[in-house]
Automatic annotation (TrEMBL):
GO terms for molecular function: 4 iron, 4 sulfur cluster binding; metal ion binding; oxidoreductase activity. Pfam families: FAD_oxidored (PF12831). It comes from Bradyrhizobium valentinum. Transmembrane segments: none annotated. It comes from the Bacteria. Keywords: 4Fe-4S, Iron, Iron-sulfur, Metal-binding, Oxidoreductase. This is FAD-dependent oxidoreductase.
Amino acid sequence: MTAANEFTTEVQRPAIVVKRDVPIAYEADVVVVGAGPGGFAAALQAARMGASVVLVERFDMPGGVHTSGLQGSADIGVGGIHTELMQRFAADGYIYTATEHTHPGWAGNPLSHYERNKEPGSAFTRMTFNPEGAGCVMANMLQEAGVTALYGTSFVDAIVTRGTGNDSISAIVVENASGLQGIAGKIFIEGSGTSELVARAGAPFVRGGGGQPEGTGWDGVERPIPGGLLWTMSGIDFQKLAAHQESAKDPLLHKLMAEAAASGDLPEAVYRPRMAGKNVYGDAYIGHPTLDMSPIAADGTYVLWQNVPYEWALHMDDDAADHAKAKRALRAFINVEAKFLRKYVPGFENATVSGIGRFVGVRDGRHPIGEYVVNLDDVKAGRTFRDAVTKPMTKTFFWGGHRKYTFEVPFRCFLPKRIDNMILTGASLSFEYKTLFMVMRNFPWCTQTGEIAGFAAARCIERKIKPKEFEFNTPYF
Ligand SMILES: Cc1cc2nc3c(=O)[nH]c(=O)nc-3n(C[C@H](O)[C@H](O)[C@H](O)COP(=O)(O)OP(=O)(O)OC[C@H]3O[C@@H](n4cnc5c(N)ncnc54)[C@H](O)[C@@H]3O)c2cc1C
């Protein structure tokens, strides 16, 4: 946090202080940091309701983990902007649907990320959107709504004005092709996915990443939740792969891996055995070069998971050295794995790396402390709230016995403590880790939270009130 018109860089030892004037290049009613599902929907909704909106995004398109990060998993629309997105992706030909007919033998295959536990040969439907195409559609939607979307622009700092009670943000500092610029606004929306705006503005949060303070996963075993880099390969002949798994009696490709390791094609440091159930996602989740993939975008194209090894316990969201280490290591792992697959695994002879996510996604970043922190007890108790943002929702929680609960989410968990004019979205909501992870940070919900935040911001602008004064008394969804 810095004083107005100053930009201070802090490094660990020795410190240097850089001071310079930063011109205010834009002013808007609503300023959104990050264009993931949360920031995207917030900007869109606020602009559609008449607010002037500037959105900053460091990459070249909206969509966050789901486009720039190549996640791409699509769902049936849950209403509002999310449903509209699914319809527009479909209309532009960017939805790809895999079923037991397009991918016979996929359900129950141990290499399948999502369908591995299904009955072999059973029916399944796996919808994805083409991340690059989806990013184009989302960019168009922002353009149509009149959002000033600044791509290639990184949020750097928040200029905070001290109040007698709470503080408020007067402007943010960004860095882009023009150098450092200031963007002044009335309401600021946190859409960075890792609560960067919260941290720079001095609002309170619990640090994410690494070992979890709560200790245990759904099965009672303590472990961190690593970040991950998704990548795609095209030209895979899955039927040939499946035939090999069966004829060689090598469902997990262990024989091929042993062969490659013996030939020096799988360096020991890279080889990571499966964790046999000892991790949040069960048996497959981590482990390169073991395959963990899902169909995406087109026939013969699959998205593959490459995760940071658990034991590294990196803090990629707030430690640049950890961040760089993860990026270096995962690119190297992908290269080794791609070479292994092409050389040793039937069905991959003509496969090629067709994409690597623009960033290593953080699954467990900072958790802001809001005016209310949604916790597992709220969920288990089915607690109701006067400021519920949706009608009661039912979701399966890993923690709490891996069963379904029906519950509500209050608007107060969109409002960070200490800062008056900020609204949270997406993975940056004020949820404790056990309620956020796996459940309340999925694509549909993050889009919904953005839409709710954008709605609230626009109403506050209309009524000239602060978000904390806004009475959220009718569920939005
Ligand atoms: C590896 C991984 C796999 C996942 N798999 C699934 C899944 O299978 N299904 C599912 O539903 N969910 C999945 N998730 C969770 C889901 O993707 C996230 O919870 C969701 O994308 C969060 O949305 P968001 O809008 O809060 O942030 P994000 O999607 O993280 O988007 C944040 C955006 O802000 C931008 N940004 C960040 N910092 C700055 C800055 N300083 N300046 C400018 N721009 C900035 C980023 O570039 C990005 O575009 C996964 C997450 C990860 C990391």
